[in-house]
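[[Encoded backbone]]
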Amino acid sequence: MIIVDQALRDRAREADPVRVALVGAGFMGRGVTNQIVNSVPGMELVAIANRTLANAERAYREAGLTDPLAVTDADGVDKAVAEGVPAITDDYRAVCEADAVDVVIEATGAVEYGCHVVVTAIEHGRHVVLMNAEVDATVGPLLSHRARERGVVLTGCDGDQPGVQMNLVRFVRSIGLTPLVCGNVKGLQDPYRNPTTQAGFAQRWGQDPHMVTSFADGTKISIEQATVANATGMTVARRGMGGAEHPGHVDELVDAYDVDELRSLGGVVDYVVGSRPGPGVFVLGTHDDPRQRHYLELYKLGTGPLYSFYTPYHLCHFEVPLTAARAALFHDAAIRPLGPPTVEVVTTAKRDLPAGTRLDGLGGYDTYGQAERADVTRHDALLPIGVAEGAVLRRPIRRDEVIGYADIDLPEGRLVDELREEQARWGVRRDGDF
């Protein structure tokens, strides 16, 4: 932040803004629009793509910009930018292919559609900020590899819990400690929540009931922590992570883990329910130098061997423009996979499901996601939650049973399945070495 804010002010003074396009004008997309338009000098939101064009226009209007220009292709976006007029389109390819766009922010939350957006943006040399952790957890390792080969940045976002954790990890490492736990604080965890039980909350905040359900049923926390694991090389101690109920402060968690076990695993991702300060994140780390441990105790961080660092909040859409600036100005990612995945999110039945059921996807009535080691997922051919939507069950599945590829028929012709197959082949070739 200390570097990025000044760099953006320099770009504002030079009248050379970072030009950003947004794909997805839902609840979070509208927040990002308002933030860039009104609070980020040195950056312009030059175009919004949304399958319902009226929602793209709404996002600009709510941010105080009226009369955006409706366009159909990349040439239309480029002409609008040249004329200083914001553009709207119902075709994601228009913003991904436009020469006037430096960074594409993907904010749809849809896996298949999001894959098309990211692949197209990378192919045309655009940096990509993913507000879509579902894509990241499903095929992020491969897409990040493609981005590196193309010379662009694919990154998760500041402000969302994974990005906040990764910023903490980088800080902890920078002062000489070794992170061994990356944790997320939740207020609720109930795998059987569904869009009906969450409808009231969703209506109050103007959000999608399915997205809200994915928060409540544990799918989202599993997805987010999988992206952290893949960005740090960490793993999970067990399927589903620990998920302890802990009503105290996160500082007390330094006594909740076996340090030798953490070291042997190479660090773990986890979450706790009900801890303070919520809804924050935490990193627990060790220091090998006894002299420095003496100073850490002086500075009130305790006697070790684990030391607690935390951020008491996450301010997702407020911070996303900073991620776009990091990518465009410094070629730096807030969070991205190191290489092939270390943790996946596997599909688990939320209720007894009869043969022939067409799974309804993330945050629905049928399934929830659990974080699992990638080697287990691969060995047992378990179904990742990011590809489960639309799959048809070949046999009955009991509640809380994990679903495998052998249990389903996938929809035909999907890009996400092609990317999964390519990621598996690439992962074997790379053997974990990025």
Remarks:
- The chain has a mean pLDDT of 95.
- The chain is about 40% helix and 15% strand.
